[in-house]
Amino acid sequence: MDERSRSLQELQHIKQMMERSSRFISLSSLSGISAGLCGLAGAWVAKKKIDCWQGVDCSGVSPVHSVIELLNYLLLVAIVTFVAAFIAAFIFTLYRSKKAGVSLWGSISLRLFWNISIPIVVGGFFLLRAMQLGQFELLAPGCLLFYGLGLVNAGKYTLREVTWLGYTEIVLGLISLWVTDYGLYFWGAGFGILHIVFGLVMWFRHERNIGTQSRTVPA
Amino acid sequence: MINPIENLNKTFDSRVRLGIMSTLMVNEKINFNDLKEVIEVTDGNLASHIKSLEENGYIKVNKGFIGRKTNTTYTITKAGEKAFQQHLWALEKMIKAMK
Questions:
Q1: Binning pLDDT at 50, 70 and 90, where does residue A117 land?
Q2: Looking at chain A, which runs of residues are DSSP E strands?
Q3: Of A78, A151, A177, B37, whose CB is crowded by the most CB atoms within 10 A?
């Protein structure tokens, strides 16, 4: 092997080590897809209830008698959706990191978790207060914006697609600020469809060839 | 023209040492187990390479505890950073020179 390709190889090795040590790469694409399906299901259930409340169609749902009842129901749907999405995403990523033989509890995943949490927790408080003040239009845009900020913030510690997904969520959130009548549709697009799309992108880019070729080339 | 090979740092000849330095360039500090996972080597192998880097003054070893368990972390020194950057620069030169 000549000196030049040896130098190139060495540089590639350096780059790989830098990436591997600072990014959590075992994030599973199935996590994205499963979270998206949960998001779509949640949006659909919420839509049925809202349709019923507005007197459009009450098939398959119990009628709602007051705004408070509707809001409590929607809050419950949101929590169940979030928990289901989180658990499903967690299981798939746990499975993938087990298969790759890396620990899920390293300092990188801790950093990832911390960085994604800050904007989301702050956003959660902000939206809770907005609800108390009756600013319901801000719920869907707020969810999208704070979630997007969390992803962008955490993107540098994991796969690059997470950053892209974050920017997309932010753009969607900004648009929905001015189209508040369609909040739920934007919410479904952001938390449902985008997750599925980016899950597929991640799968194509990182997991398609698993089995035929190792992702990290050992020295 | 100067010979770029002269600027290549002999200490970084080993893949393991190169890996340790690369990792410490982008992480403020890292502990033994995380380092082992990233570089994929055995305990003994990693320890001996860490020792040689420490003797060269390129990395600093910080002994600490988490509860009763020892938790040793490593950080890169100023000299280590400089040496690594010079090594990178030499690699770049070499690739350019042989085009």
A1: very high
A2: none
A3: A151
Disruptive mutation site among A8, A17, A23 for chain B (greatest number of B CBs within 10 Å)? A17
Residues of chain B contacting A3 with CB distance shorter than 8 Å:
5, 94, 98
Does B23 contact A107 at a Cβ distance shorter than 8 Å?
A: no
Place A212 in a pLDDT band, splitting at 50, 70 and 90.
Answer: very low
Is-contact A55 A119, C-beta < 8 A?
no
Is the CB of residue A166 less than 8 Å from the CB of residue A186? no
Q: Cα–Cα distance between A16 and B19 in angstroms, integer?
A: 9
Q: Using the 8-state DSSP alphabet, how is residue A156 labeled?
A: G
Per DSSP, which regions of B1-99 are E strands? 30-31, 59-66, 69-76
List, for residues A195-204, the tens digit of each pLDDT value.
999 999 999 9
Which amino acid, one-letter code, is at A75? L
pTM for the full model? 0.76
ipTM of the complex: 0.82
Residues in B touching A18 (Cβ below 8 Å): 22-23, 25-26
- If 0-12 CB within 10 Å is exposed, 13-18 middle and 19+ buried, where does residue A27 land? buried
